[in-house]
Specification:
The complex is a heterodimer. Chain A contains six helices and eight strands. Chain A is of the alpha/beta class. Chain A folds into two domains: 39 residues; 186 residues, Glutaredoxin (3-Layer(aba) Sandwich). In chain A, the strands form two sheets. A five-stranded mixed beta sheet of chain A has the order 6-5-4-7-8. Chain A is elongated. By secondary structure, chain B is mainly α. Chain B has a single domain, classed as Up-down Bundle (Bromodomain-like). Chain B has six helices and no strands. The radius of gyration of chain B is 21 Å and the shape is elongated. The chains are: A alpha/beta, B mainly alpha.
């Protein structure tokens, strides 16, 4: 007499219905092919990124932030702030603070004296008679990671006005965060502006009223702030602001 | 090996996974077409493809376990070694992925195809979160445009081949697990000739009686 079949009633009943045991060679071939392809992909990834890193190193120019980063001895350094700090960044939903709402516009930012990765002194002096853009970046910030290469590309394309100087301040360095050390990041980007290292307490960033990363302070040849922006500013908008800075007369 | 190498490797694995999913889709369509022409069954593969289908069915559970293990180790590498801090949605995807390693590992050892009842619901939840996370990345309606300390879910830490981010790779991992677990069957999908034979057998028995 046949007993009724209890399909599904006993969860262990179907365990004997195991995966098909025949044609073992096909299964082994699939496993073998998968392992071979995975190993091949690993080798491709290794050699592709190695060749990319080599080409990055070759692209580094002299007297740039990237060159200083190549001889990096430090990721943070002492900073001297001379002058009154800029007022707090206005509470605005816009990445680029409207000049009418920004109390820093027309003010002179403090002088920053510090060092680059290789120990070379870097001085950001608003009163040196040249218009300048000072950008504050953090290596772990994804918005900075996105923006910095775009700015470098924009510079490489010859868009930067000759009468405008660019400086970067590497601040909020954290060894346990992504994309550390910042020197390696600068080498990878081939960053050409000079880079000043902020100290562990972020004195330079505080003196310029940093609200978030990335942060831009633009000042004219008279050393007065013309514009501040915080966030991943679209590169076209950034370019327009810098070109406008280069073409405008100094604030009396 | 640096972070770029490892993330490129993960991205290439994801592309390999997409290739596998596409092949499965083609096989499914072929099985549907042949099934429609064959009486007594909805799905039937041509005789020439049956050994391959059987072979995949045989190794599907170990492969699904390998996908889950790779996904888990990959996410741990990205957060603990590469120092990409996981956002809230990343954590929800981890909740759906990490138990799969244990569940599928035991299932692979026991060759227990019934694991699909436990694995697939969890996978579908994880896949849904991955898709949502990817959309947040691509269309960051609530995006923060600067870094102030918290890591927004719209942050794209990895971007490879112009379409692969971390949640995209996670989504492919979830899809692979779902498909592989469903492919691990107790019974082999009938070939066309077997299906024809099966459909004819009851008829001949009736005639005999």
């Amino acid at each position: 007499m046949n007993e009724p079949k209890h399909e599904g009633a006993d969860p262990y009943a179907n365990l004997s219905n195991r995966t098909t045991g025949h044609r073992p060679k096909t299964g082994l071939m699939i496993i073998g092919a998968t392992v071979a392809v995975v190993i091949l992909l690993g080798l491709v990834a290794f050699f592709v990124t190695r060749s990319e890193n080599n080409s990055d190193t070759e692209a580094i120019s002299k007297d740039t932030g990237a060159e200083a980063a190549q001889n990096a001895q430090q990721e943070q350094a002492s900073v001297t702030v001379i002058g009154q700090p800029l007022p707090e960044y206005p509470k605005t939903t816009s990445m680029v603070a409207p000049p009418a709402e920004d109390p820093a516009v027309g003010q002179t930012p403090p002088v920053l004296e510090g060092f680059s990765f290789d120990g070379t002194p870097v001085k950001i002096d608003p009163a040196d008679g040249r218009a300048k853009v000072v950008m504050f970046v953090a290596h772990w910030c994804p918005h900075c990671q996105a923006e910095v290469p775009l700015i470098q590309k924009w510079i490489d394309e010859g868009n930067k006005p000759k009468n405008v100087d660019f400086y970067a301040v590497s601040t909020s360095v954290k060894a346990d965060q992504a994309n550390y050390p910042p020197s390696k990041w600068m080498i990878k980007v081939g960053f050409s502006p000079k880079v000043m290292l902020d100290n562990p307490s972020g004195s330079a960033a505080q003196a310029y009223g940093l609200p978030g990363f990335p942060y831009f302070v633009m000042m004219d040849s008279a050393g007065k702030v013309t514009q501040r922006a915080s966030g991943e500013v679209p590169i076209d908008q950034f370019g327009t602001l810098v070109i406008s800075l280069g073409s405008q007369p100094a604030t009396p | 090996m640096d972070v770029d190498t490892i993330t490129l490797f993960f991205a290439m694995l994801a592309v390999l996974g997409i290739g596998f999913l596409l092949v499965c889709l083609v096989f499914f369509v072929i099985a549907l077409i042949h099934g429609a022409r064959t009486p007594g069954t909805r799905l039937a593969l041509p005789d020439s493809l049956a050994p391959l289908r059987a072979g995949v069915g045989q190794v599907a559970l170990p492969l699904a376990f390998a996908v889950a293990l790779t996904s888990m180790l990959g996410s741990l590498y990205l957060s603990e070694v590469a120092k990409f801090p996981p956002c809230e949605l990343c954590w929800f995807q981890r909740i759906a992925m990490y138990p799969q390693v244990l569940i599928l590992g035991i299932a692979a050892l026991r060759r227990d195809v019934l694991v699909k009842w436990y694995s697939v619901p969890l996978v579908l939840i994880g896949l849904g979160i991955s898709i949502y996370h990817y959309l947040v990345e691509r269309f960051p309606a609530t995006v923060t445009f600067s870094c102030t300390g918290d890591i927004p879910c719209s942050t794209v830490w990895v971007w490879k081949f112009h379409f692969l981010s971390i949640p995209a790779m996670a989504g492919i991992g979830f899809s692979l697990i779902a498909v592989l677990v469903m492919l691990a069957r107790t019974e082999q999908l009938p070939t066309k000739s077997e299906a024809v034979l099966a459909s004819q057998t009851p008829k001949s028995q009736n005639e005999d009686s």
